[in-house]
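#data-curation
PF: Archiving a pair of folding outputs for the training set. Convention for this channel: one message per protein, sequence first, structure tokens after, nothing in between. First:
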Amino acid sequence: MRRFTRLFRELDESNRTSAKVAAIRRYFGEVPAADAAWALWFLVGNRLPSVVRSKTMRTWTAALGGYPDWLVADCYERVGDLAETAALLLPVGGSGTNEPLTDFVEQRILPLRDWDESVRFQLMRAIWADLDREQSLIVHKLLTGGFRVGVSKALVIRALAEEFGVENKVMAHRLAGKWMPETAFFEALRSGEATDDRRSQPYPFFLACPLEGEPEDLGPRDEWIAEWKWDGIRAQIVRRDREVFLWSRGDELINEGFPEIAESAADLPDGTVLDGEILCWRDGRPLGFQALQTRLNRRKLTAAVLNENPAVFLAYDCIEWEGTDRRGETLEARQACLAEAVRGIASSGAIRLSAEVAASDWADLRRLWGESRERGVEGFVLKRRGSPYETGRVRGDWWKWKVNPFTADLVMIYAQAGHGRRAGMFTDYTFAARDGGGYIAVAKAYSGLTDAEMREVDRWIKANTLARRGPVRTVPARQVFEVAFEAITASPRHKSGIAVRFPRILRWRKDKTPEEADTLDSLRAMVPARRSA
């Protein structure tokens, strides 16, 4: 635990990429494979199922520290991180444990799930007695399933690639998909040997970059393939050894959420991996992301949900064919494999080709781009015909040419404190549109303001709070902000009757009064009438 704690501190305290990479390399170069496997599992974003609920952690902190419940709640609101709050409030029991990370996780944390709350509290008292304050912070994060540290998965991959002497894309592929934090896995990762069973393994996704100039700047039109940019979830179908694995971009197996796609994928030839987009689809057109959300993160899909929001996989790349990695081949060659792969899929199946959009020149393509919203798409993805399939976001060959976002001038009516570096400041806002003589909430956003603007808004909120309800403060409807969002749809589940996607703040409109903000009717008028793409 001491070395893992030191790694956490080094990553948390440094803003320099080189220092973070050096710290990760140093750690994985000196710890046993068993500890390295668990550390890697946490660093790339995996979390333990919550062993202790947040409410329980607050209760235990109050009981062990001798604090009233309200004081713990107020401290949590101020700090913005429950693990840190508990670490600061609890008395330090020991000088820190030197147990291996593997033993601590497997023998002390995970077994807590098997006991009732009273026994768990006693076991936790014994754990706390051995920890110093730094270790308490980390253990609390592991217990509550909120372990985060200031590194991205890409940075971890880079550090491991450098440490083990391989290319980034090779290491990214080795870490793709689901894997368990086991000694054998890490040893195989380090040696480059295949593990016993990685037949389900997907490939790292190739991501398009935002188009910064005009499409005409890319050169001759005939060098580029244009495809609609679908508003769904990116996914890969892996068909190997007569099994089907449907992976999301977040390395989640989602077969159960989309059984019709998994069923159609069983007709693909073995040794095939397709890249594409999952959408809900009916009558030749996408139903929008709101429909797709009815299929996500559900334990059980009802017949009604399956019938109302049928899903399809729109395939636009073939990155493995006949058991061979095709990523180094040209896009045109891969698409020939793609056409062959889906040839045997029934026309009524849930796997379809995302066809190239025909346009004679850039002007013709721009005209079609202008129809994106009514077609229910976000614009185009432009791909160089000769491009390989890269790893991650690589500039030059794939560009996303998105339509401009929707915007509306909305009024802030609620505020909530942020987390992390924003802890103690009110940085998460609820925005409303005018409706009759009042206001109705339509969006929540927390990004888009400068640090100076956030501090100014925070001071105004604290000086003008009308009411408190838990962590939420009600404020006068005076401050107007321009809010952007990617999509807007009708939604009977929301009081406003609409739902917006990816809201973020564009600017603080100090030049506008609340009476000049947009109305709910004006937002409803933005809901596009869609036609087939």
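PF: Second:
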Amino acid sequence: MFDLEEELKKLPAKPGVYIMHNKLDEIIYVGKAISLKNRVRQYFQSSRNLSTKIQQMVSHIDHFEYIIVDSEMEALVLECNLIKEHRPKYNTMLKDDKSYPYIKVTVNEAYPRVLFARQQKKDKAKYFGPYTSLGAVKDILDLLRRIYFIRTCNRNLPKDIGMERPCLYYHIKQCKAPCQGYISEEEYRKSIDEVIEFLNGNYALVTKDLQAKMKAASESLEFEEAAGYRDLLLSVEKLSQKQKASDVDGVDRDIIAFASTGDEAVAQVFFIRDGKMLGREHYHITGVANESRSSIMTNFVKQFYAGTPYIPRELLLSEPLEEEELISEWLSTKRGQKVRIHVPKKGDKERLVELAEKNASLVLQQDSEKIQREEAKTIGAVRHIADMLSLPGIYRMESFDISNTNGFESVGSMVVYENGKPKRNDYRKFKIKSVQGPDDYASMREVLTRRFSHGKREAEELAKKNIDISHGSFTRYPDLILMDGGRGQVNIALEVLEELKLAIPVCGMVKDDNHRTRGLYYNNVEIPIDTHSEAFRLITRIQDETHRFAIEYHRSLRSKAQVRSILDDIDGVGQTRRRALMKHFVSIEAIKEASIEELMKVPSMNKLSATKVYEFFHSSVENANVTT
């Protein structure tokens, strides 16, 4: 039993991090302190003037723990790491968890590749970035493929040269097929050197080359080819223009400002490298009500730079930091050089900060309008449905459907919506076990019985272990069950619930003769829906999603069964070889058309097994019975 008074007395007067837990042992707050004894005790002193949010947090504290460190700097680092890992409810939180993309050139390989990378590793490759936009990286990679014909495959070259056919990129003229030996290692390496120059920002070389090629193609009356070079030139020009938003000088700096309203804030960051604006990003922050502007900025800077891979030489901020000296020391340590933090009051730097703040205000305003529209489509639509059915309130809805083809591979689907939004982690698939043939009512009875019986058993097992039932995967029951159909399906659901002694409202989603949602069937009455309402649109989305989920599961099972029915009939072709054949040839039709020599190129296939596959598909007797 945690004795609060006794534990407060034991607190050491040393630097460290304290971690607050609620009754469910969830971490609800993480903080750091120069003296744990002084800082933690403040939360429980009635004379302290605590903010509303902190008072609420304290009311939920069941117990706390702490970690002692050697310095305030270590406490800051540990605090940032724990907040990022546990995302406590009462910390001011940076909602975005973005990782910044890199472009990776595998210069350690004989035939290097140019790849997208999420993080920089110590693997002897050359990295460029980090970039602020995933879209920009994809555009650059696409451009490099079209200009320099760099391979993207993961073949082991030169070892695998000539072992497989060239890929699609060769045929669309975006790769010179080093896998076939069509380009020498030396010539390929020259292209890689030019790629590295390009990624370093030297666009003059490629621009000059493309202009020469365009001119030569035009003089040879190859106008289509000339137009292709022209398009590449325009792409290079567009990319180079993005780098030309110049700063006051040539240093690396981030410019940060934010705008807030209520409990939400948006921070805007401009990224300037070598005096050029590389891009900008906005970040959502929650839990800022009653926080000072300095506190919001401090929390953002700590969380943001705990996760970003690059620390610039200077930060220009719209608000001063509460722990500026400590944070500057921390960032300087991460960078390996002095990091300057400054709140400009005049000149060009102040105007850049003001521009960032205006952008943050604009995003916040747009997001506010977007949230209102989104709430009308989700929470507002759910309230409308609850009012139509005279229910006190709806949070969770579960929808069920059955899919089969003449009773073959019958499956059931369960999709879950909470507050009008799909909760895909709670979706469930059911392969029908007890029903033979196309009996949708019996199949639905099995699905519902399995779903709610599982929930009851799981709840009982958790209760025996004194674990809150909310931690179970099936123990959270819906406030409303939606059936894809009318009276018949609803009655099946009500019978199952009665047998299991559960009281959950059941509603049918009724369709007209054209298979369009017409109304809701509830308590033996069909209730029409205004087809222009958000409630109608939500019901339609749920119905379509339930049907899609069931169809996709059924299709996957049917596809697997078809592949087995053909390939498993071949003597000497087991699961491993079947999988290898399908991976190599993609379709049954391609396997049928392959020669014995082509079949032998498939991993795990030898001459004997390749011959058996070939003879199976080319035997006049067998071939007549094989379908795809």
